[in-house]
Structures are given as structure tokens and as C-alpha cells.
């Protein structure tokens, strides 16, 4: 039951005052229920967290407030993207909306006087198993970390897979072929070449890099090397390409096919490198509505090599299921930008895997092996304290899209480094490709007319009834990105204002119905239509003048659907930065709210800025930009400690 609805005044109370509220609640409710309801009203817990705890206490008979409070925190943190909670961390870094003092009052009321007593209560509970016990209980305790059982299992699946890879033997790699693929020599280390030699040596590898660092170029050469080696051995490879969203899959298809054209290899080898990428859901055989995929340990994927792009968007459950479905002999190559926002759902797998890679390179003997294969000077990068995971990782460190003088490149670099002064300096400089719009004193609304201007070309294409491919191209050249969903500067209001503005300018006849040029984004996967959350559709008449919503397929073709067939979607002249992951646009307008928000982090701004290929305009006040640049997202999991022990 949601007690907080009965007591709106909870919003106002602090932990020390909520004792009074016990008198207001119906008889028979314990102080833990009061605390949970108070914390729900404060936004620390969601209704679902409290319901879960109520079930645990009613059906499993758990009455220990220390356990129930920890369970609710575990559930709430999962909702915020964490895989687990750490009792020791929470003790000093309380959840958003609570002071340390308040948290301690709540915990004391739950019988917790220190971290050890909290841990002891959990260890004693019948609801908690203590690792390495395999007992299946709702929660698992590992040191001071507490997991919901299923998430502990996901993490273990990933860790066990990685540990198996660390023990595997290393493949022979054709160094001459690598030299052919990378004919150019320079004084600096060619990290693309190193990445190819590294990934070709292993069954599991990660290639990470910022925008334009040549991830696709590199991986296309890697696939070429693997194909050429397999031809030499007379064993053709089954290669599959995948990405988390339809858009990202379409982009991977496009980039692989253009990168292939430049390969200095025979047509036979080029033909054997596939171009067609699918979504991870489709690859695994999504059984929409069920959490289990058709492909799993019992029914593994039929492939020898799997390349997954945009891995920063892959959450922990999806990664665990993917790994589960990999045949033991097959190679898994993960590609992505470790510094981008983590997945919408729980975990930050790519960030955790590549946690120390900025500073830690390879174990010395591995650096020597790669040096022999590539003729690159890698000895200086040998590091005795590099953990086994470091062997699987290569970071591409040079951007070929943004040179030293590029505004976007410099802005992204400063943001990524958390260098607030550098960010502001870059915004104030006279780079052609970076613009800064500062809200005026007292401004409460976004400047819709200026934001809308970026769509002039698109509306012209709509007016001229250009074909859908041209329309799509025009739409993809510009995008307004918002940091938040709600409020005057949130995506919902901005889209509503934009539609109204387009209506007032005569571009839209009636914004309340479907109209030519309406742009929508699906907000749910739709198995029947073969469409995915995040897919973008543009409304235009077909040959018989019936309005249809056109979606681009991963192969670049278009499917037109009657608008009535779409159920869950939203207008997408503006989209959130989260939804823009996996896409790039020539020009981006990145709109920040005018009041501080916890979502304003360096990862969010970095992701938004790097969606722009040619031009970015940042709308926001300097204090918010400064604070975002120095705020880093932290997602708790056990992966970093397990993989990067030093
Ligand atoms: N070693 C190189 N030398 C010169 N140009 C390169 C090199 N590697 C990549 N490029 C060029 O840089 C651009 C970006 O390369 P690529 O698309 O492979 O990067 P990416 O990291 O996949 O980019 P994205 O940010 O779009 O994911 C392409 O035009 C590519 O041809």
C-alpha cells in the first residue's frame, strides 16, 4: 500500500520529524513502514521498491528493519542504473535527496548503528545469501555489496565468461597481412594497428575510442584479417554484426560498407565481410514480452565472429544474455566509446570493462607480443601491474574527424577530462564549429524560433515532396537534443512548442493529427512490425496519397506503415541526449535546463556534443556547464573491483 498518498505532508518532513507520522498512520504499521513511506515521499524510493519490501516482509516473514531498508535501497538503486549497493558507500554518500545525518537517523531507527551491524543483520537474514554460497535467495551479499539475486547472477555470468577468456590460448596472427592493411608509417604509435593485432589474437576484445577515432575503419580491417586467415586455412567464417538499436545497426551497416571499399585486399575477401547489421534483440531472437531469448546457452548463436557496436548502450542483463548465447569457440568483438553515457537500464558494462585503460596499457609480455606483430614501439607501454582484462582492450587515441584545431574535438576533450575552465574557454573562443547561447537574465522559455531554424532544409524537402531517402537525409542533418524530459527545457515541451511554431508558420496544417513531415520516435519495441524502441519514422504520403510513416530498415530500405498501426511513439523534432546515443548529425543544438539538475553530468554533455559532426550549439548558463563538467556519473557494480583490483 502506498501510504505516502495518504500523507502529502511527507514531502516536507525530515527523518527526525517523521516519528510524529507514526501516530498518523493506521494502527499496526511498523516504524520501518513509516520510514519507507517517508523515503518514498521524498523520492528516494519508488512505489515498486516499497511494494517489493512489503512482499518480502509479508510473504517471507522478514521483520528485521535493517534488512528491509537495505532491500528497498537495493531496489531503488537498481532503478537508478546501479547493479548493487555498497553499504559502506551509502553510509557516507547517501541517496539523492537525503543528507548523511538524515540517512543515519533512518538507519538507526532500523536498528543499524554502523556498517558492520548492518552487514551482520543481512548475513543473518533468510532473505540473503552470502557469496560464494549458491543458495537462491532474493538478495546476495558480497563483502559490503548487496545485490538483487538476478543481477548478481548477471554479473557473475559476465565475470565467469571473462575469466574463461583470460585462460584461453592465444591465436597465431599473420603479421605480414597486418602490415599490408596498415601501409603508412608514422612516429606515433598506430593504435588502430595495435587494436587489430590485439583483437585478432583473442576470442574476446574491446576496441574503444571517441568520435572519429576510426573504430569502424579498424574493425573492418580486423574482419578482413580474420577472413583472409580463415581462407588460408580453408575454414570460412560466419560473421555477424549487431548493435543495440535499429539506428545504430543501420549506421554500422553503412560505415562497414564504405570502409570495406577502401581495403587493399581482393574482392573475394571483401565480399566475405558482411555489411548487414541487425539489432541485438533480433540477433538473439527476441521473444518480445519475455525476458528469455531464443538463443541462449542451450541454443547458441550460429556464428564464429560477432561484432557488436555502440556497446556503451548495452546494459548488464543484455550483455549477460549475449555472452550466454555465444558458442564457446566464437569471437566476440565489442566496439564503443567508453566515455559516453551508460545504458539506460542498469549497469555500465563498457565503462567498467575499460575502467583503467586511459592510464594502464598492457602487461609487458603482451606489449612485446604486439610489438613483434605490428612493429610499433610498445615496450614503453608495458605495465607490470596491468590486470588480465587490460590485454583484451585497446583504446584508439587519435581522432581523424576532429583535428587539434577543431572546436567540437577540443570541447569534447575538455568535457571528458572534467576540465570546466577548458570547456568555458572553448565555448568562448572563435571556433567556427562551436557556438554558445547563454540564457538571458530571467529567461524562462527556450528560443524556439532560433532552434526551429535548423529544420528549414527539412521543411523545404517536405514541401518539395522529395523522396523518402532524401527526406530522411535532410532530417538527419540537424537535431535538437535536450538534457531533460520535463519542464520548459525538457523534450516534451520543446516538441510541443516546435509543432506549434511549425503550425504558426504554415508548415503544419494541424499539429493534433498526422501531417506530412511529422517526425516520430518509437518508445517501445514492436515485434509485429519488426520495429524497435528508438526507431525514427517520418510521415509522408505514399503514391496513392495516403499518409504513411516511413522507417529506415538496417539495409537502408524504407517501410511505410499506416499511422494507425503505431501505438507507442513521441514527436522527435527534439530528443533527449539519452535517445540520441548511436546516432550522429551534422549539426546539433544541445539544450540545457535553466535550473540545476542531477542529470547534468560530463557524460551527458560529452555524449550530446559528440553527436555533432560539423557544428554544435550549446544552450546553457555557465554555472550549469561548469558544474556538469565536474560531475561524473557513478554506477555501482562489482565489475571494476573484480577486473581492476589495483
Ligand atoms: N588511420 C586513419 N587515417 C586517416 N583517416 C582515417 C583513419 N582512420 C579513420 N579515418 C577516417 O576518419 C573518419 C572516421 O572513421 P571511422 O568512421 O572509422 O571512425 P569511428 O570511430 O567509427 O567514428 P564514429 O564516431 O562515427 O563511430 C572516416 O572518414 C575515416 O575514413
From TrEMBL:
EC code: 5.6.2.3
CDD domains listed in its UniProt record: DEXSc_RecD-like (cd17933), SF1_C_RecD (cd18809)
Entry's family note: Belongs to the RecD family.
Keyword Isomerase: yes
Catalytic reaction(s) noted: ATP + H2O = ADP + phosphate + H(+)
Matching InterPro entries: Coronavir_polyprotein_1ab, P-loop_NTPase, RecD, RecD_N, RecD_N_sf, UvrD-like_helicase_C
Domain of life where this protein originates: Bacteria
The protein's assembly and partners: Heterotrimer of RecB, RecC and RecD. All subunits contribute to DNA-binding.
Domain spans labelled RecBCD enzyme subunit RecD N-terminal: 42-147
Pfam families reported for this sequence: AAA_19, RecD_N, UvrD_C_2
Chain positions recorded as ATP binding sites: 209-216
Note: In the RecBCD complex, RecB has a slow 3'-5' helicase, an exonuclease activity and loads RecA onto ssDNA, RecD has a fast 5'-3' helicase activity, while RecC stimulates the ATPase and processivity of the RecB helicase and contributes to recognition of the Chi site.
GO cellular component assignments: exodeoxyribonuclease V complex
GO BP annotations, alphabetical order: double-strand break repair via homologous recombination
Source organism: Marinomonas profundimaris
Molecular function terms from GO: 5'-3' DNA helicase activity; ATP binding; ATP hydrolysis activity; DNA binding; exodeoxyribonuclease V activity; single-stranded DNA helicase activity
UniProt keywords, alphabetically: ATP-binding, DNA damage, DNA repair, DNA-binding, Exonuclease, Helicase, Hydrolase, Isomerase, Nuclease, Nucleotide-binding
Protein name: RecBCD enzyme subunit RecD
Cited function: A helicase/nuclease that prepares dsDNA breaks (DSB) for recombinational DNA repair. Binds to DSBs and unwinds DNA via a highly rapid and processive ATP-dependent bidirectional helicase activity. Unwinds dsDNA until it encounters a Chi (crossover hotspot instigator) sequence from the 3' direction. Cuts ssDNA a few nucleotides 3' to the Chi site. The properties and activities of the enzyme are changed at Chi. The Chi-altered holoenzyme produces a long 3'-ssDNA overhang and facilitates RecA-binding to the ssDNA for homologous DNA recombination and repair.
SUPFAM superfamilies xref list: P-loop containing nucleoside triphosphate hydrolases
Residue ranges of domain UvrD-like helicase C-terminal in the record: 572-618
Amino acid at each position: 500500500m502506498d501510504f505516502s498518498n495518504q500523507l502529502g505532508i511527507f514531502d516536507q518532513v525530515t527523518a527526525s520529524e517523521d516519528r510524529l507520522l507514526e501516530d498518523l498512520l493506521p494502527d499496526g504499521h511498523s516504524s520501518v513502514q513509516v520510514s519507507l513511506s517517508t523515503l518514498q515521499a521524498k523520492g528516494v524510493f519508488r512505489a515498486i521498491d516499497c511494494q517489493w519490501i512489503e512482499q518480502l516482509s509479508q510473504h517471507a516473514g522478514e521483520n528485521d528493519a535493517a534488512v528491509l531498508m537495505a532491500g528497498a535501497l537495493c531496489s531503488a538503486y537498481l532503478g537508478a542504473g546501479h547493479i548493487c549497493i555498497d553499504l559502506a558507500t551509502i553510509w557516507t554518500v547517501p541517496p539523492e535527496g537525503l543528507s548523511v545525518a538524515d540517512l543515519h537517523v533512518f538507519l538507526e531507527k532500523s536498528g543499524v548503528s554502523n556498517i558492520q551491524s548492518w552487514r551482520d543483520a543481512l548475513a543473518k537474514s533468510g532473505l540473503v545469501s552470502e557469496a560464494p554460497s549458491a543458495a537462491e535467495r532474493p538478495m546476495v551479499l558480497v563483502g559490503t555489496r548487496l545485490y538483487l539475486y538476478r543481477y548478481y547472477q548477471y554479473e557473475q555470468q559476465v565475470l565467469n565468461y571473462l575469466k574463461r577468456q583470460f585462460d584461453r590460448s592465444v591465436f597465431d596472427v599473420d603479421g605480414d597481412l597486418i602490415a599490408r592493411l596498415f601501409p603508412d608509417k608514422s612516429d606515433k604509435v598506430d593504435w588502430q594497428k595495435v587494436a587489430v593485432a590485439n583483437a585478432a589474437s583473442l576470442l574476446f576484445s574491446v576496441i574503444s575510442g571517441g568520435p572519429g577515432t576510426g573504430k569502424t575503419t579498424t574493425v573492418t580491417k580486423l574482419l578482413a584479417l580474420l577472413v583472409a586467415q580463415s581462407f588460408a586455412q580453408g575454414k570460412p567464417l560466419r560473421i555477424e554484426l549487431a548493435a543495440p538499436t535499429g539506428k545504430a545497426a543501420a549506421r554500422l551497416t553503412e560505415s562497414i560498407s564504405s570502409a570495406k571499399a577502401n581495403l587493399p585486399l581482393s574482392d573475394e575477401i571483401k565480399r566475405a565481410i558482411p555489411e548487414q547489421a541487425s539489432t541485438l534483440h533480433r540477433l538473439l531472437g527476441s521473444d518480445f514480452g519475455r525476458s528469455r531469448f531464443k538463443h541462449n546457452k542451450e541454443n547458441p548463436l550460429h556464428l564464429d565472429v560477432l561484432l557488436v557496436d555502440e556497446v556503451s548502450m548495452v546494459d548488464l542483463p543484455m550483455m549477460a544474455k549475449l555472452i550466454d548465447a555465444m558458442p564457446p569457440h566464437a569471437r566476440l568483438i565489442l566496439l564503443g566509446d567508453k566515455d559516453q553515457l551508460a545504458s539506460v537500464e542498469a549497469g555500465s558494462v563498457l565503462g567498467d570493462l575499460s575502467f583503467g585503460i586511459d592510464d594502464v596499457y598492457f602487461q609487458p609480455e603482451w606489449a612485446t607480443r604486439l610489438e613483434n606483430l605490428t612493429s610499433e614501439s610498445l615496450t614503453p607501454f608495458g605495465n607490470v601491474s596491468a590486470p588480465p582484462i587490460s590485454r583484451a582492450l585497446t583504446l584508439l587515441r587519435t581522432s581523424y574527424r576532429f583535428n587539434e584545431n577543431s572546436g567540437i574535438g577540443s570541447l569534447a576533450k575538455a568535457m571528458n577530462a572534467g576540465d570546466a575552465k577548458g570547456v568555458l574557454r572553448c565555448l568562448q573562443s572563435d571556433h567556427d564549429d562551436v557556438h554558445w547561447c547563454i540564457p538571458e537574465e530571467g529567461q524562462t522559455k527556450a528560443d524556439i524560433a532560433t532552434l526551429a531554424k535548423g529544420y528549414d532544409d527539412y521543411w523545404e524537402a517536405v514541401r518539395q515532396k522529395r523522396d523518402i531517402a532524401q527526406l530522411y537525409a535532410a532530417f538527419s542533418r540537424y537535431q535538437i537534443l535536450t538534457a531533460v524530459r520535463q519542464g520548459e527545457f525538457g523534450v516534451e515541451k520543446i516538441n510541443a512548442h516546435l509543432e506549434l511554431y511549425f503550425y504558426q508558420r504554415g508548415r503544419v496544417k494541424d499539429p493534433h493529427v498526422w501531417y506530412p513531415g511529422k517526425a516520430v520516435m518509437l518508445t517501445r519495441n514492436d515485434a509485429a512490425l519488426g520495429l524497435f524502441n528508438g526507431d525514427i519514422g517520418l510521415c509522408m504520403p505514399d503514391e496513392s496519397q495516403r499518409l504513411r510513416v516511413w522507417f529506415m530498415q538496417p539495409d537502408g530500405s524504407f517501410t511505410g506503415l499506416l499511422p494507425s498501426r503505431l501505438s507507442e511513439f513521441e514527436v522527435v523534432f527534439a530528443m533527449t541526449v539519452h535517445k540520441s546515443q548511436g546516432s550522429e548529425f551534422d549539426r546539433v543544438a544541445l539544450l540545457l535546463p535553466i535550473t540545476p539538475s542531477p542529470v547534468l553530468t560530463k557524460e551527458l554533455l560529452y555524449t550530446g556534443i559528440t553527436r555533432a559532426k560539423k557544428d554544435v550549439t550549446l544552450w546553457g548558463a555557465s554555472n550549469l556547464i561548469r558544474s556538469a563538467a565536474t560531475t561524473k556519473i557513478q554506477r555501482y557494480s562489482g565489475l571494476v573491483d573484480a577486473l581492476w583490483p589495483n
